[in-house]
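Structure first, sequence second, as always.
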């Protein structure tokens, strides 16, 4: 699992490939600044709706083959090994998140972070993210987190493997698509988060979460989701969308 912690933590506690993960961050100790454009957290202590775990996925027990580029591969949620490099060198890749509240289009960075982008493309083409919830919102750091089919939470065990960190010293801005991880190096697997407001820069002092894409369309959809955030009592992860928010499907296109 992966977690982002900013004095107000983003802690996730699951295992993937035998290592602990935090859903959108590490044990970050970034303090909140008084100047932020993020919406104020809701004070209502309602219990947000939760999604049922995704149970339709199968398992690949051996070496992970590259999935079909036309999206016809089976639904897989468990892997024995990390995927090989399946993306085409020099091609531009776009991921379209078909949410139940609107579409978000992301240009993946296959130049600076080819391995991270490749991992996301492979998981998406195996429909790993289909039916998963955007289960976490945290206005203090301006993020929305998702990518957990097994538990629909930060404690998800992940796809069965972790991937190496691809760089460090990252800075974060609205529209960035970022891998979640724990404070341990090389602990990302499948969980991701969107940076939605400038409050995401509160994570700059950590800089360990790999940015591998940027929203080109649909940031307004994410802003509405974050603005609906309700506080979860006794949670260190901030809150959750007031309404159930699902990733129906992620479509990958290359050019």
């Amino acid at each position: 699992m992966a977690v982002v912690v900013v004095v107000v933590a983003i802690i996730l506690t699951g295992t993937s490939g035998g290592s602990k993960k935090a859903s959108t961050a590490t044990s970050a100790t970034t303090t909140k600044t008084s100047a932020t454009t993020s919406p104020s957290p809701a004070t209502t202590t309602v219990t947000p709706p939760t999604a049922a775990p995704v149970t339709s996925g199968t398992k690949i027990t051996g070496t992970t083959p590259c999935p079909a580029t036309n999206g016809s591969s089976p639904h897989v949620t468990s892997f024995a090994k990390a995927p090989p490099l399946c993306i085409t060198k020099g091609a531009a890749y776009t991921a379209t998140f078909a949410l139940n509240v609107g579409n978000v289009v992301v240009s993946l960075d296959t130049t600076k972070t080819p391995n991270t982008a490749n991992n996301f493309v492979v998981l998406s083409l195996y429909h790993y993210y289909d039916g998963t919830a955007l289960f976490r919102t945290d206005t203090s750091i301006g993020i929305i987190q998702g990518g957990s089919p097994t538990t629909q939470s930060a404690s998800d065990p992940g796809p069965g493997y972790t991937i190496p960190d691809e760089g460090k010293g990252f800075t974060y801005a609205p529209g960035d698509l970022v891998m979640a991880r724990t404070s341990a190096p090389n602990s990302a697997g499948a969980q991701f988060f969107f940076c939605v407001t400038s409050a995401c820069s509160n994570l700059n002092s950590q800089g360990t979460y790999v940015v591998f894409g940027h929203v080109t369309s649909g940031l307004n959809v994410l802003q509405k989701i974050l603005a609906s955030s309700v506080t979860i009592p006794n949670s260190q992860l901030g809150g959750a969308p007031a309404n159930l928010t699902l990733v129906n499907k992620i479509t990958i296109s290359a050019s």
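Margin note: The chain has one domain: 1-27+95-255.
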